[in-house]
TrEMBL record:
The keyword Endoplasmic reticulum does not apply. The keyword ATP-binding applies. This is Peptide/nickel transport system ATP-binding protein. Pfam families: ABC_tran. Keywords: ATP-binding, Nucleotide-binding. GO terms for molecular function: ATP binding; ATP hydrolysis activity. InterPro entries: AAA+_ATPase (IPR003593), ABC_transporter-like_ATP-bd (IPR003439), ABC_transporter-like_CS (IPR017871), P-loop_NTPase (IPR027417). Residues 21-265 form the ABC transporter domain.
């Protein structure tokens, strides 16, 4: 059973509200014996209500594997995941489908996430079954509200096929589909990496605005520490499956403690004044 917002806020840990999500000692091993690879190695972290937390690291650091475990698309080899204090690590069946309503995702490639034989209208209407909308009018209102939030109009996209949309429009539709379910946690896994630079900041603004509008926590996954600086309250830095540094964004960016974090920051482009 999902706890009410009042029950969640009443829970205290060391005098503070309990986290929305807590990952404890998550480990994921692929393969066996000498060929085994520890993609995620004993990682623990929390996500607070309405926080934007970014996991940053290079390709192969384990960040996407960690995101898939949080989404319950991949079982951890060991460790646990707790949502509002409930252990959700081994959910199956109806309980897992309920979890997927509370925890939604926006992936790197929206094109592969859509059924190419469905119009946008049909794609979004199929998601309405999880929203509890009882009438067509209520469902259409949810669709229009979500599209408006991401900067699209129903007339602009609903009767189009996915291939007729631009990359930015497809990503916005993907975000709208997630927002319709009013999730408590949105996991955005490299959600801007396939977009032109001119579109990235716009999509990042859409996501961060949704935090307030939908009372939502965001877990943002990226290889770009510059984007982490732009959107985050806190940053978690992963390297070779391990969490090597974490803290408030200003602390991590301006006073990094780990050499790997310093290397990531050194790769961020800087603008220099021209004399």
């Amino acid at each position: 059973m999902t706890a009410s917002k009042e029950e969640v806020l009443d829970r205290q840990v060391d005098g503070r509200p309990a986290p929305l999500l807590e990952a404890r000692h998550l480990t994921r091993v692929f393969g066996h014996g000498k060929t085994a690879v520890r993609a995620v190695d004993d990682v623990s972290f929390t996500l607070g209500r309405q926080e934007v937390v970014t996991i940053v690291g290079e390709s192969g650091s384990g960040k996407s594997t960690l995101a898939r475990m949080v989404l319950r698309l991949l079982d951890p080899t060991s460790g646990t995941i707790h949502l509002d204090g409930r252990d959700v690590t081994r959910l199956r069946g109806k309980a897992l489908r309920t979890y997927w309503q509370e925890v939604q995702a926006v992936f790197q490639d929206p094109f592969s996430s859509f059924n190419q034989f469905f119009t946008v209208r049909r794609l979004l209407r199929r998601s309405l079954r999880l929203t509890g909308a009882t009438t067509d009018e209520a469902g259409e209102a949810l669709i229009a509200q979500a599209l408006e939030h991401v900067g699209l109009t129903p007339a602009e996209v609903l009767d189009k096929w996915p291939h007729q949309l631009s990359g930015g429009q497809r990503q916005r539709v993907m975000i709208a589909r997630a927002l319709m379910l009013r999730p408590r946690l949105l996991v955005a896994d490299e959600a801007t990496s396939m977009l032109d630079a001119s579109l990235r900041a716009n999509i990042l603004n859409v996501l961060t605005d949704a935090r307030q509008a939908y009372d939502m926590t965001i877990l943002f996954i990226t290889h770009d520490i510059g984007q982490a600086c732009y959107v985050s309250d806190r940053v978690l830095v992963m390297c070779q499956g391990k969490l090597v540094e974490q803290g408030p964004v200003d602390e991590v960016i301006f006073s990094p403690r780990h050499d790997y974090t310093r290397r990531l920051l050194a790769d961020v482009p800087r603008l220099h004044a021209v004399s």
